[in-house]
Amino acid sequence: MKKISTIVLLFVCALSFAQDDVKKANITVSPYYLWSEPSQIGLSFELNRGTLFGSGGNSSILQVAYGTMTYEVGNQEADGTGYVIELGSRGYFSEKDSGVYTQNTLAYGNIEFKENGYKGTYSYFSFLNPTVGYKFKVGENLSIDPSVGVQWVIQMKGSGDIDNNYIDEWAGRFGIRVGYTF
Question: Which of 30, 35, 36, 61 has the fewest CB atoms below 10 angstroms from its CB?
Fold first, then answer.
């Protein structure tokens, strides 16, 4: 028991010293558009926790979006709308909250179709959404953030006329955010 207590105490001490250089956390709120399948337009919230051990920065990401998607079967298509929620993390390579970053999120989406004789729902879950981007700071609080990535989805059985066999599991992602940091 003494050994475990000593190891825990040393870990807590080392962690507290490592946090000496951490700056105050800040929040960036960004309207964003993500071209993908489904496409998203929504709000992104980034809580930046600062630098750890003197290199780069770490952030938590929450994205809430309106999702749109086109379902195609043969020469027929239907447009659907719904919502997408993503939660994940972002790591900056050089500075606390700007420059090159990598990001991954957990995502859940639900798109409903009611068009051209198609009626049903497409739902998916994704834990693999690697993204690479660059956050440009414009002044003290404004930022522009282009990104590119891929998404692999685990599809849930479609309801109604929607069949997952006609929807790809892999999708490219291209996005842009314009944010304000508080």
Answer: 35
